[in-house]
Amino acid sequence: MEMVTRLIADKPVVIFSKSSCCMSHSVKALICSFGANPTVVEVDKIPNGQQIERALVQLGCRPSVPAVFIGQQFIGGADEVIRLNVQNKLAQLLLSAKAIFIWSR
Question: What CA–CA distance (Å, rounded) separates 45 from 41?
Answer without folding.
Answer: 8
